[in-house]
Prior knowledge:
Helices cover 42% and strands 19% of the residues. With 297 residues, it is α/β, with parallel strands linked by helices. It has a 6-stranded mixed β-sheet with strand order 2-1-3-5-6-4, with helices on both faces. A 6-stranded parallel β-sheet has the order 9-8-7-10-11-12, sandwiched between helices. Helix 7 (160-175) links the parallel strand 8 (152-157) and strand 9 (181-186). Helix 5 packs across helix 6. The protein is globular and about 60 Å long. The relative contact order is 0.12. It binds NADP nicotinamide-adenine-dinucleotide phosphate. Residues 109, 112, 133-138, 157-159, 162, 206-209, 211, 215, 236-238, 262, 265-266, 269 line the site of NADP nicotinamide-adenine-dinucleotide phosphate (NAP).
Amino acid sequence: MDTRISGRTRLLGLFGSPVGHSLSPVIYNFCFDRLGLDCAYLAFDCAEDDFSRALDAMRLLNMRGANVTMPCKRAAARLVDELSPAARCVGAVNTIVNDDGVLTGHMTDGMGVVLDLADRGIPMAGKRVVLLGAGGAASAVMAQCALDGAARVDVFNRGEAGVASARRVAEMLRDDGASCEVVCRPLGDGREMHDAVREADILINATPVGMRTKAEGVSLITDTGVFRDGLVVYDAVYDPPVTKLMSDAASCGCRPEHVIGGRGMLLWQAYGAFKLYTGLDMPVRELQAFLDKGSRS
Ligand code: NAP
């Protein structure tokens, strides 16, 4: 029995489906325990159609907050009371904070990349970014880079529909006052994308290309001549921990410390949510050590 639970314990949770595989309960409960917070975190399997009832339950049970995963992220953006700038531009929510019954939706996926880079001494302000993909993760990363002061983001996507949706996000960001120049183009034969990478400070892959079950051993960067000292390469893919993009970048001129995989994004998006829930810094190093120990045993 967990002796931490009291009559005043505040509940937080995860809504989505499926959620049984999620690491979020382990991550948040570990941090509550470490910081001595009287909070508990559970995962709730919730279909998209039931999401408004989940929000009613949050108010009724006075839950402090909830993370939202697929397929409920867009429904969450439609149904909460308020939206953060990133969540409004992207049209999706992964974190909800309950302040006395007022539910505010945030999107911390993009923060995951920006905070991870900042922790490695690479601030986003003034950077030229090439972003591959225009799906959920890419839109969140695009919005956060722009909101955190990137000078320019060049988005390349395979399909035209994704390019159009990225352009809509870029328009919202402009309307929101972001001064970052965002240019969204189709990937095509990759020539323009490779040219853009030659001019960039940071390349971010936010497609599943390179992922274990999808396209392991494949990279969208086919001309490894674009890799060089001074280019940061960030792959949102976290399984495998080293993708083809990353191994090519490391062996073709990028500094090893500037070749980064998606595990940090996972951790730092949780850091962003934890800060919103508690106002406190998540004990990232301790959590990392705890998770590393778990994955080895
Ligand atoms: P998504 O919404 O389905 O979007 C997928 C994007 O990748 C779309 O833009 C799609 O282009 C593009 N794409 C798919 N296959 C492609 C291919 N063979 N060649 C070129 N482009 C391709 O997925 P998502 O949720 O954004 O996730 C994308 C990746 O990010 C996944 O690997 C996921 O694991 C990772 N991710 C990591 C974290 C983390 O914390 N590290 C968090 C979220 C996501 P079209 O528009 O042409 O289909």
